[in-house]
Every structure is written in C-alpha cells, then in structure tokens.
Write a structure and sequence with these properties.
mainly alpha, single chain, disordered C terminus, elongated
Length: 133
C-alpha cells in the first residue's frame, strides 16, 4: 500500500465533501438564486454536479491506486494531470480576474493532492510489492 497515495485519496475525498457541503451553499445555491435563465440554471447545475462526480471518481481512483500496484501509475497519473490542470485554472483565474490567490484557495489543495500522488507513484516505482494486487 502507498501511504502517499492513500493521503492524496483521503484529501481528495475531503475536498469532495467540502465542495458538496460548503461550496454548495456558498457558490451553487447563490448562482441559482441570481435568476439566470432556465438554460443557464441547467448548465450551472450540470457543471456543479459534474465537478462533484469528477472529484469523487478521482478520489476513488487515488484510493484504488494506493492499494493496487497493478493500476497505480495509470490511475494516479490521470488524476495528477487533472489536478495540476485545476490548480493552474484556479491560479490563472484568481490572478487574472480577482487579483489574488486567497479568494480561490482551491489551487493549494489541488497542488498538494497532485504532489502527494506523484510522490506515491515515484516511491512505488521499481518495488516488487507495488505490482501485487
């Protein structure tokens, strides 16, 4: 088992919970209440829940990678690339539109999760025990 990937998966699962239970009332509900058109409300909800699904799937992929050496590299690599992309988006939009990284601190969580996962993949390479189920 990779403790690094377990940590990344656990943090990802916690991030999913924060997204759902703190971000929902703070972001999703106010967006819906701002009286956009029915089409825009639909897209806001679709994107919100798609993000929730992606976060949950990525969490499960990291947790599976932590315990299953056979699929460790491809599962973790897919999540690492996504989480690095999310970090770049939060940094870019935070700086470009808000002039601050503190308003969109999610970048730090995504960078941390990607780093933990990368360490987990790197520390497990070449070890015979990582190839076991």
């Amino acid at each position: 088992m990779s403790k690094w990937l377990l940590a990344a998966g656990t943090l990802s699962l916690a991030t999913t919970g924060i997204h759902l239970f703190a971000g929902g009332p703070e972001v999703h509900v106010p967006l819906l209440a701002s009286s956009p058109s029915a089409l825009l409300k639909t897209y806001v909800s679709l994107l919100w829940h798609a993000t929730s699904a992606i976060l949950l799937i990525n969490s499960l992929a990291l947790l599976l990678a932590a315990v299953n050496g056979r699929y460790r590299v491809p599962l973790a690599a897919a999540v690492i690339v996504q989480y690095l992309a999310y970090a770049v988006l939060f940094i870019g939009y935070g700086l470009a539109y808000l002039g601050s990284l503190s308003t969109t601190p999610q970048w730090a969580a995504f960078l941390l999760m990607a780093a933990l996962a990368a360490i987990g993949v790197r520390s497990g390479k070449g070890s015979p025990s990582t190839m076991a189920a």
